[in-house]
Input
Amino acid sequence: MADINFSVRSAAATKANPEISGARPAETRWDIIELLFFAYRDFVGDPDDVLAEFGFGRAHHRVMHFVHRYPGLKVADLLDVLRITKQSLGRVLKQLLDEGYIVQKAGDADRRQRLLFATPKGEALVAKLAGLQTDRILRALQGLDASGVEAVRKFLLGMIDHDDPDKVLEAILRAGGKTVKE
Amino acid sequence: MADINFSVRSAAATKANPEISGARPAETRWDIIELLFFAYRDFVGDPDDVLAEFGFGRAHHRVMHFVHRYPGLKVADLLDVLRITKQSLGRVLKQLLDEGYIVQKAGDADRRQRLLFATPKGEALVAKLAGLQTDRILRALQGLDASGVEAVRKFLLGMIDHDDPDKVLEAILRAGGKTVKE
DNA sequence: AATATACGTCAACATGGCTGACATAAATTT
DNA sequence: AAATTTATGTCAGCCATGTTGACGTATATT
Output
């Protein structure tokens, strides 16, 4: 049995009073807001379990992901993408370096830079996590035709701030949100 | 100038070797994985700034949102939705109660229950935050036709685990991800 | 030679998760 | 009626991951 005790706000109840001018204020998209919440909760939920087995958390996942995807990423670039301080990054990065998931290499042109690369061990972890997330994504894309998938991509792209993009985001935006092919 | 130092992994480079059987393993959806990361980052980024002015964090936002949307929600239901412990919830809920954003009311049938309701002050905060998020959502939905919007909804719905839903999620799933109307 | 940059690190602190233990009131079962 | 279970609150402490501020070292730039 359902046993629902709470009520649900109706769209009508939260519709703002239209001004006499006739300008209808935009209606709050509770539906998308909540779908995004639950979708993202479950999307990051799968990796969490695997990460826990490695003694890692979401912070490690984010670092591993971007280092894998953009080999040779500088520490400074990583800080921009993750929007965290170097002290925060330092903690998780140090663990990933110590445990052999990532290696550093001094920059060619500028030897102060530490370019980051995933090791085979690191690649394996990323692949495992990305596999779980891809399974979920493919399931969610099932039943959508090509134009539907394109709509999803456009939507997600539109949700992203395009002003002042970091270099990684810039690369993604240039590709139109599509995976870059060679 | 772009000044990109890192490279980008190509889809071809990460394509797994097809087995001799001919079964092609599904390709990792790096594109959607990253779009989701950036989209969600910016989606929750707007409210963060406002919340900081109130001395609140994301945890407070989540609580306020669900209490507003499902008036009379029990504490136990809230714990299920947020997937946190009562101790964690207790901390933020106590602040929201003390500062007059939420009120409690003993359950009619079961007087042990504390049913939660947003006060006008609480409603105002939720409306402000939801407004910011709606602006972003509407911008992202612009340019999509009705079938495109439907595709987005289907996608987000498909990303959510449907087994063992909490009561709030159950209500959403019953409505097919659409905002419930009366 | 002086200054600026890229990075690392130490110390301290805040938020928001967690576990375990225990208390109270009200409902349910025996 | 008594025992037990349930819904909630709370104390104490731990952990992960975010923050600020200060400072050091190597290298690049001026």
